[in-house]
Amino acid sequence: MSPDLAQLRAEALAAIDAAENLDALKGAESQYLGKKGALTALLRSLGTLSAEERPAFGKAVNDAKVDVTTRLEAREEKLSGVALADALEGGPFDPTEPGIPPLVGNLHPITQVTHELVDIFEGMGFSQCDGPEVEFEWFNFDALNIPASHPARDTQDTFWLDDGNCLRTHTSPTQLRAMLKLGAPLRVIVPGRCFRNEAVDATHEHTFYQMEGLMVDRDISVAHLIYVMKTLLREILGKDPKIRLRPGFFPFVEPGFELDVHDPFDSGEDKWLEILPCGMVHPEVLRFGGIDPEEWTGFAFGLGLQRLAMLRYGITDIRDFTGGDRRFLRQFRRA
Ligand code: PHE
Question: Which residue's alpha carbon is nearest to atom 9 within ligand 1?
């Protein structure tokens, strides 16, 4: 092989190896093997050689061309990802075979319900807030008018930490946090995780989700509370809800109610379901929140998100939500 040819061959192979993508490879190909390529030019120059020189040189150029072409094809295959697929599959790549579908996850049903609720409330001018899951005793109890003697403070119901704080037993402490931070007037919702020292069974969980709602403004009355609750239920249930208010006791509201809905999910049964504890914010709680109860009034409610999801989807065991069984979770995949 002539020194010129050997160098050209080496250059061509190096250019092919250096090509980082198919475009660069095409460039190298035309530079050496194209119509005006360097190797092509050498082959063309055969005619200028004598009859004795021609066969040997012709063969040498051809060999070099085969080497370069082979390397080029290998590089192309690699760059196209075909070589990679072969390596992964351990066999020849069949582009007509159906692929392996990627694992598509979905949002947890509680997250889906939460998003839906946030959407509904944003439409009514509420903003979403957050609060800590580890809470001061004052926010979780005192400021909500829950006296030291109240059974809810008992370790039977509350996870107390060594430093005197607790895991919040409801989202209601965020009522205070919102009032102190935002002042009146305000409209907030606070979806979040709560904890109670429960004996766990099909309807009780130590970790559960609530959504707190709070509206404070001038002249807010029970009528506003009912309007907002009915709007919420209409959106969620997709029908005009039949509701009733019963007195309910929560130390931080006065008056306090249990809001029941008649057969919310059309089971056909003549049944009232307790869905929404709510009430007018107690003046003392407004005061703790730095808001003058002579000037402002408000309502609050607490929605149990698992309960809502259970009723809606016919889920019978609350433990399924946190059990991590993908067969359960997969059912809430949306197209
Ligand atoms: N925090 C109460 C609970 O967890 C629910 C509630 C919220 C009641 C707001 C009235 C007003 O049971």
Answer: 301
Distance (angstroms) between ligand 1 centre and the Cα of 149 equals: 18
Domain-wise residue ranges, the chain: 3-89, 109-330
CATH 1.20.58 fits 3-89, yes or no: yes
**For the segment 168-191, what is each residue's pLDDT rounded down to a tens digit?**
999 999 999 999 999 999 999 999
CA-CA-CA-CA torsion sign (122, 258, 310, 240): negative
pTM to 2 decimal places: 0.71
Whole-number Å distance, alpha carbon 268 to ligand 1 midpoint, is 29
Common-topology check for domains 3-89 and 109-330: no
Given the structure tokens 């439409």, which residue do they identify? 123
Atom number in ligand 1 closest to CA 210: 4
Specify burial of residue 166 (Cβ count, 10 A radius: 0-12, 13-18, 19+): buried
Rg of the Cα trace of the chain? Answer: 37
Q: In what order do the strands lie in the sheet with 207-217?
A: 127-128, 186-195, 207-217, 297-304, 272-281, 253-262, 243-247
CATH H-level superfamily of 109-330: Bira Bifunctional Protein; Domain 2 (3.30.930.10)
| Gap between the Cα atoms of 132 and 150, Å rounded | 22
Eight-class DSSP state of 201: B
What's residue 289's pLDDT?
98
User: What is the pLDDT, as a whole number, of residue 294?
Assistant: 97
Angle, alpha carbons 114-117-119 (nearest 5°): 110
Scan for tokens 């929560």, then name that residue. Answer: 250
Q: What DSSP string runs through 33-66?
A: TSTT-HHHHHHHGGGGS-TTHHHHHHHHHHHHHH
Instruction: Return the residue matching tokens 């760059």.
Output: 79
